[in-house]
Write a structure and sequence with these properties.
The protein is α+β, with helices and mostly antiparallel strands. It contains eleven helices and 18 strands. The strands form two sheets. Strands 1, 4, 5, 6, 7, 12, 13, 14, 15 and 16 form a ten-stranded mixed sheet that branches. The two termini are 28 Å apart.
Length: 405
């Protein structure tokens, strides 16, 4: 499955940072993980830290799938409003999801702090109304977040223009957000795990999965076998190829990154990521080396060749849209790319067993705009499921939720 097009900045900037050899012999572990992106890295780290032996198998190079194409806005804010989740599942579950995402930011910082330079930095998040008719829904969203003690401010048009140079009907300013280099973070995390003795093998393809009462047996395309008590499917958007019935809709998203700008040129984006209420939404954030990353223009294209052909045109559309919002910041795309992402009907992820594969196979599907935030939460949830321990998010993030949609 081809998950990206063009020249994702993280891969260009970092290159292939570490060597993870293909599997050349049979292997045995407590847990096998299929996937080599940031989701698999966080889950593997959680499991190893709690005494489980783990082997990771990735068909590409480590981090070379969706992680390389991620724009890595770290937010508690879910693409689905908290008010919408409350209408669907009740306010308690809506707060359960939003509150957990807010706490996951601190967990991600803890992981990043132990790895060295990952470009992790705290940011504010400015969510502005794209149109006058969006103001009422944003105000209801703000009031619900405020009621649950999230760190938010309400900005009227004058304050929004003075502080950020944005003309819009209103905005929610959240003081809980961050950024990171996802490709570097995944590679550094895997390198640390490898140094501790964990087996990590990229360029290794799994052709067949056999499940039994006491474990799973994976067969590679080179004739080797991996035996494990549990299997975690953390192959990103390729996970659905192992399911007979789709649980999400694949789409393409586009992005570009600028050349380095001065602090004065970065202006409000130096410490603030921005996004809008329109769907699909325009968003932008800075990097540690003074660039601006702009993304959006999502479409329903899930054919790599057609997505490839749209990258440059979409980058130009994004540049023009950004110019209408923050025209005083001079931007020219230095690198542009596109990537596959998946949307669930309610904007929440899926973590846990699926009835098609039995209780020895766990899926980690951190789908939606909060992929990395969800992955951090999923790491703890997956460990709890393996250890047969209760977890507060178990029901809300399970496939059983499909019956409630």
């Amino acid at each position: 499955m081809d998950l990206k097009s063009g020249y994702p900045w993280w891969a260009v900037r970092n290159g292939l940072t570490h060597d993870f050899p293909p599997l050349r012999a049979d292997a045995v572990a407590d847990v096998a993980i299929i996937g080599g992106g940031i989701t698999a890295a966080l889950i593997a780290d959680e499991l190893v830290e709690h005494g489980h032996s783990v082997v990771v198998i990735e068909q590409r190079d480590i981090g070379w799938g969706s992680t390389a194409a991620s724009t890595a806005l770290l937010q508690y804010e879910i693409d689905t409003h908290m008010t919408e989740l409350a209408q669907r599942y009740g306010e308690d579950d809506a707060w359960l999801a939003y509150g957990a995402c807010a706490r996951s930011l601190e967990l991600l910082k803890g992981v990043a702090d132990g790895l060295g330079e990952t470009d992790f930095a705290w940011q504010d998040s400015l969510y502005y109304a794209s149109r006058p008719r969006d103001r009422a829904s944003l105000q209801a969203e703000f009031e619900l977040r405020l009621r649950h003690d999230l760190e938010v401010e309400w900005l009227e048009p004058d304050a929004l223009l003075i502080r950020y140079g944005i003309r819009a009907p209103a905005a929610i300013l959240s003081h809980q957000a961050a950024r990171v280099d996802p490709y570097r973070m995944a590679n550094l995390l895997f390198a640390r795990l490898q140094a501790r003795g964990m087996a990590i093998h990229d360029r290794t393809r799994i052709e067949k999965i056999e499940t039994g009462t006491h474990g799973v047996l994976l067969h590679t395309d080179t004739g080797h076998a991996i035996s494990a008590s549990r299997l975690v499917m953390a192959a990103g958007y390729a996970n659905e190829t192992w399911l007979d019935k789709r649980v999400a809709r694949n789409r393409s998203s586009y992005a570009f990154i600028s050349d380095t700008l001065t602090d004065d040129q970065l202006g409000p984006l130096r410490n603030t990521l921005i996004w809008e209420s329109a769907r699909p939404y325009l968003y932008a954030r800075s990097t540690g080396d003074g660039r601006i990353l702009v993304g959006g223009e999502d479409d329903s294209i899930d054919i790599p060749a057609r997505r490839d052909a749209r990258v440059l045109r979409k980058a130009e559309i994004l540049r023009k849209k950004f110019g209408k919002v923050l025209g005083e910041i001079p931007l020219e795309p230095a690198f542009s790319w596109a990537g596959t992402f998946a949307e669930t009907a309610d904007g929440l992820p899926f973590f846990g067993v699926h009835p098609q594969h039995g209780d020895r196979v766990l899926f980690a599907m951190a789908y939606g705009g909060n992929g990395i935030t969800y992955s951090m939460l999923g790491a703890g949830l997956i460990r709890s499921l393996i250890e047969a321990q209760p977890h507060p998010l178990q029901a809300l993030f399970s496939f059983d939720r499909l019956d409630r949609m």
